[in-house]
Amino acid sequence: MNEPLDQGATTAPDSNRIIEDYEAFRRPGPKGAPTVLQVLPALVSGGVERGTVDVARALVEAGWRALVVSRGGPMVRELERVGATHIALPVHSKNPLHWRATFDALVDLIWREGVDVVHARSRMPAWLAWRAARRNRVPFVTTFHQRPAAATALKRYYNSVMVRGDRVIAISHYVADRLLADYGLDPVRLRVIPRGVDLSLFDPDKVTAERLIRLSERWRIPDGVPVVVLPGRVTKWKGHGLLVDALAGLERGSFHCLMVGEDGGRRSVKAALEPRIARLGLTPYIHFVGRSDDMPAVYKLADVVVSASLDPEPFGRVMIEAQAMGRPIVATDHGGARETVLPGETGWLVKPGDPQALADGIRTALALDAAGRQRLAERAVAHVRENFSRYQMCARTLAVYSELLDERARPGAAADR
């Protein structure tokens, strides 16, 4: 068995090539290939959804069966293209009138499809999936993606289902430490598996000039002006307001800032920021451009990428995507950023909530000369390829599934979990 908090026994890929080979996880059995059922609210967009599709692809490539239950969404087509099967159920619903029927459907699905492992990635679906897995006596895995803080006893109880897995996957050591301290999780059941970047997409050499020109023209980016990018939904905790205050301390015309991301239904956050931007004389220099479907090109356009979160990020996918594209990252010094950014080597960590510190970090990044930027880019790309590839994330997850199946197959193993 892996030691507590072990990230898995997979070998880091050579930084000069991309490995996507899951042959080591093939395990034909008497009833055929193992079947894994992942459960999440929806397949719309976001890191949870991306991780679900990535793991499903890895399962199929390893010769396993991959099933996914959600209420559906645009990413269902992508999931099905990688060879997985989607089953639509209202596992997202918090309406108690739906729970019994959904639970019964999950119990039947697990039995009918011969599911070997159930993996829940969100709290509401996890309550149903946990009980359904127990009813069928199959191993149950959770991944804790969200911030672990719970302001009330009720919220804490609601979160607690995510530590009831036979294995509990934390997406960072920051999250793992909080689970141990706040929920009393047995460390033997805990595994840390960081999120991974698809290096076939986030590759600076694969972004064409045409893609960069298309974005530059669409967003009217002025020639010769350094570009500062903050990717993320426009919500208060992501720190858009903090970045506005930091940019107020920089020379006008010395930057062009792109806020890239959906408003997430919180238009009031953007609406509140726009008058503030105007009062500070920054309207010509800061633009909310909405969601982009070409984030590799967005990162390549950037001279510096910012993660200004006011609260700790559980992991922070922005940090590893920016580094995979060879771009300097300036991030607030807490949460998952401490595990992904190498200060002074691939980026800078600055005091959280401090606009002056953030401004200083941005100045430092923009002041790099061509040779300095090249050295940083090479270190950043190598860092991500060695530690945060999609392959590593998927292989470590399949190792957790394999570990549980091996335990279940041992003579004398408990039948009821």
TrEMBL record:
One of its GO terms (molecular function) is glycosyltransferase activity. Residues 46-200 form the Glycosyltransferase subfamily 4-like N-terminal domain. It comes from the Bacteria. Pfam families: Glyco_transf_4 (PF13439), Glycos_transf_1 (PF00534). Residues 217-380 form the Glycosyl transferase family domain. Keywords: Transferase. This is Glycosyl transferase. It comes from Thalassobaculum fulvum.
